[in-house]
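From the shared-data thread, chain only:
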Amino acid sequence: MPSIQVSHPVFAPIAVECNEKESIYLPGVKVGNMVTVSTAENFIPIPAFTGGGAVFKDAAVAVNTTSIPLLAYELMFGMKINGNTLKDPPRVGIWGGFGYIEGNINEKCDYEVVVTWIKRVNFTPPPVSRVSKYNGKVTLTTPSFTGQALLDGGKEWRDRFFFETPDEAIKFLNFKAGISE
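Structure, as tokens:
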């Protein structure tokens, strides 16, 4: 899985999953300032005697960061932290949308700003032994967590949007994740 450096990572829990449409999200939160993200699509092969090819199964998503805001940790992993007490989180996090901004040079050699929105992802909480709370943030001793992205009702697992400036991309991503400025 190749990793890319991204900025403005956000997460928004899914409120309603729609059969043929994109999910509806609850208000989200910024996950940090700068993280590294990698994704890898997984496919199920189709036997040659039935036409061959492959069908999308899921996508592995890995996020590397040293810390995330406390509210982001609670929204992503479905657990509250009281004081400095951490309890083992559930084995499965909360389904939601995850987005980030990356820079890209297109085929015309122009710089463009790309927003990637992963529509339906579930991150696995890090073990409590690797987590500590400090000053409104959760610090991860092992600075990564992984998740699984599945198709949404529209039969896509991610969308990509292109902008000319980072400010346009941040405004769009905040709107998409329900983050008020």
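Residues 107 and 128 are 45 Å apart (CA to CA).
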